[in-house]
Design goal:
448 residues, alpha+beta, BirA Bifunctional Protein, domain 2, Rossmann fold, seven-stranded mixed sheet, five-stranded mixed sheet, 14 helices, globular, binds adenosine-5'-triphosphate
């Protein structure tokens, strides 16, 4: 983990947030390369969910959430972790994260009994902060998908089964943020709520598990480093009938990367008025705050049905850490030099190609490099840069270390015959190629 953290800072993937003021615990900022990798992960997920299918629509809803939403979703009452205090050094811990009853900080056994600590952040709305008008920062993106269920259904005429996805920030006041970007207080989620007919939920739960495993593999995660954890009944979230967690072997240990929950009709039911009419199985508290009927009508029987929901919920930040960890390797080359490589799948690499003029600041070479950059950039397959440092060995090392799959060198021969050298990051093989063939080569290399 230390090597990854150091690389992230050195090369501009991730920085400690608010660093010049001493930082703020549990928050990180994504730098120039980090934002590219993160966007590529999100794009790849969006493409697989929305563009490659016809049964899923997207959404981008507000972060600030009406407290009534989180009252009826059950979060106000139950979205908490068990907290214990050390009476000796006053440190606070999440009880299920400490191994014995001893304080991990000072070793004292004088600990309080666990008590629930609600993880939601609150903020006030409007100019007067008297506590009467507040909103929550959403703790998951899911709830606004449920509250928009009818809007999306009516505007798209979807039929069951269908899904709604959202990527966005979520906030949790974690008691002990830790392990770099694994457990933070502000993070991003990529969530799908897939609505199905009651009775078909178990089939779809298994189907989505397979689909998600397959997707992680396509992002470069070795299947051997993934495990499935069938969450036992006593550990299930309040809304879940069954949850299958995809666990990844992170550098600090095997922990959850994505949770796939069968949320039944709990959420749509909870947010609906006149629940008794709807015959909802898992919800008993009558909702008088809502004005919605979040249900679909069966065309034949005319009965109203509250769909069940399968929710694959993945953390962008945890995905980033897993993908970075898988891509990272250190090799000793024949000349004894060390080579650090990030072997990202090309569609995820922050920079797709670096065009390197052999001689720094040579006008003709730089101009040719810029022309090649512009022609590859115009293909819109990701970021292409001109690397005008003049030291070819150093340029290769830098681009290996940030995961650029292709380095294209232009030299004096290029000016004469239009050929360039293309070096592959993973094999380190170099081939001479006509620059007029580059676009086709680049497309074939990157199209995923
Ligand atoms: P954990 O048990 O690790 O606290 P969780 O079961 O509470 O996680 P979910 O509510 O299922 O997590 O959230 C879905 C996904 O959101 C998780 O699989 C994870 O990838 C991500 N996630 C949740 N909490 C955090 C966090 N504090 N920091 C970063 N990512 C998070």
């Amino acid at each position: 983990m230390e090597e990854l953290v150091a690389l992230c800072k050195r090369r501009g993937f991730i920085f400690q947030s608010n660093e010049i003021y001493g930082g703020l615990q549990g928050l990180y900022d994504y730098g120039p390369l980090g934002v590219e990798l993160k966007n590529n992960i999100k794009q790849s997920w969006w493409r697989s969910m929305v563009y490659d299918r016809d049964d899923i629509e997207g959404l981008d809803a507000s972060i600030l959430t009406n407290p009534k939403v989180l009252k009826h979703s059950g979060h106000e009452d139950t979205f908490s972790d068990p907290m214990v205090d050390c009476r000796s050094c006053k440190a606070r811990w999440r009880e299920d994260h400490i191994e014995s009853s001893k304080c991990p900080s000072c070793g004292s056994e004088d600990m309080t009994e666990p008590r629930p600590f609600n993880l939601m952040f609150k903020t006030s709305l409007g100019p007067i902060d008297d506590g009467s008008s507040f909103a929550y920062l959403r703790p998951e993106t899911a709830q606004q998908i449920f509250t928009n269920f009818k809007n999306v259904l009516d505007s798209t005429s979807k039929k069951l089964p269908f899904g709604i996805v959202q990527i966005g920030k979520a906030f949790r006041n974690e008691i002990t943020p830790r392990n770099f970007i694994f457990r933070v207080r502000e993070f991003e989620q990529m969530e799908l709520e897939f609505f199905v007919k009651p009775g078909e939920d178990e089939h779809w739960h298994k189907t989505w598990l397979e689909n998600r495993l397959d997707w992680w593999e396509k992002q470069g995660i070795d299947r051997e480093n993934l495990e499935i954890y069938d969450v036992p009944q006593e550990e299930l979230a309040h809304y879940s009938k069954s949850t299958l967690d995809i666990m990844y072997k992170f550098p600090h240990g095997t922990e959850e990367l994505e949770g796939i929950a069968n949320r039944t009709d709990f959420d749509l039911g909870s947010h609906s008025k006149n629940q008794s009419e709807l015959n909802i199985s898992s919800n008993t508290q009558e909702n008088t705050d809502s004005n919605a009927k979040l249900a679909v009508q069966d065309i034949e029987t005319k009965e109203w049905v509250v769909p069940y929901v399968i929710e694959p919920s993945a953390g962008v930040d945890r995905g980033f850490l897993a993908i970075l960890n898988e891509a990272y390797s250190k090799e000793v080359l024949e000349d004894g030099k060390e080579r650090v490589v990030l072997s990202f799948k090309p569609h995820l690499s922050p920079i797709k190609a670096a065009i390197i003029p052999l001689k720094r600041n040579n006008e003709e070479l730089v101009e040719l490099a810029k022309n090649i950059k512009n022609s590859l950039q115009a293909l819109q397959l990701g970021r292409v840069v001109v690397e005008n440092s003049g030291n070819i060995g150093k340029s290769y090392r830098r681009h290996d270390e940030i995961g650029t799959p292709l380095c294209i060198t232009v030299d004096f021969e290029s000016l004469e015959d239009g050929t360039v050298t293309v070096r592959d990051r993973d094999s380190m093989e170099q081939q001479r190629m006509a620059s007029s063939d580059l676009a086709e080569y680049f497309k074939n290399y990157l199209i995923f």
